[in-house]
């Protein structure tokens, strides 16, 4: 069993799918591990750190040659792994809806592609969930990015020269990223409020010491659908939410948006008129910018200014914390493969529930129901 850890080639991607720690653990399972030279450099991991744990360092062709499993953060360009053997597993965040041509190429080459972002949200798979580990860091970094762009302090400061009042921060969308954003903004001393369409988040917001802002006036609403994810809301709800948010947002200094609906474009939560109602110098961070954006006028990969308000649209926010994001991503992959490791075969053997959820190509075909 040979496991290959390859260098990420996508623009702006600084993470790596394996660390010296996971190399050591894979070796302990009985696998051989090959690492592409330079794969860890942007995540502060030197080649010799991998080698010290028993990895074979080489160029890309040598790394993928004969590999049974190729690990990536993002799915590799099929041309870049042309020497890999048919039947090899590609285990990564494959972004299969946006990268459909790539998925078809994996199928044509006979690879078995496993999309880690399709991991079911069940208790036993929590430690394998790349979406959670990466969103958590993105929520944290979003607040730091906001603080960086904000021309004022977050906490209340009582000084001999007078008092500075605390920043007001509002978090829209309280999943994994939103919860971490609330906790981080609180730790920095902001006055924090938050909203979501799932009523279960109300208690979570309050338990972090923040104020919950919720639509109460529309009867029979509950935004939680399958797998704990949000559903699209009714027109009536959206109107009530917009009114509630409009009056609240005008008083905020910092807004962090994280709202996503699986398989749909991100819901639009903040309009240009609402941005215009905010004080100049306020900052909005749109973590959903790559999925269409929660904020009107947000631009992926840029910080733009509208009505004196900065709108931050950094791409690939977890990659901005490449060392920690890589450490957690690599552990997710190790937790996944080791949970299914069959000692006799010296290889992972997936069960039906998880295998069917994440396997997107097999035997020359696209097999995921979500892609058919
Ligand atoms: P997500 O990234 O899909 O969405 C972010 C948040 O945006 C969600 O809380 C969602 O309700 C909210 N949202 C969507 N539309 C909105 C709107 N119009 N207005 C305001 N908010 C809106 O969410 P996530 O971080 O992946 O978490 C989704 C759920 O999955 C949570 O309940 C989380 O606890 C759960 N979860 C379970 C596991 C597991 O059991 N393995 C792992 C991770 C997350």
UniProtKB/TrEMBL annotation:
It is an enzyme of class 7 (translocase). The keyword Secreted does not apply. Residues 4-138 form the Alanine dehydrogenase/pyridine nucleotide transhydrogenase N-terminal domain. Keywords: NAD, NADP, Nucleotide-binding, Translocase. GO terms for cellular component: plasma membrane. GO terms for biological process: NADPH regeneration. The transhydrogenation between NADH and NADP is coupled to respiration and ATP hydrolysis and functions as a proton pump across the membrane. Belongs to the AlaDH/PNT family. This is NAD(P) transhydrogenase subunit alpha part 1.
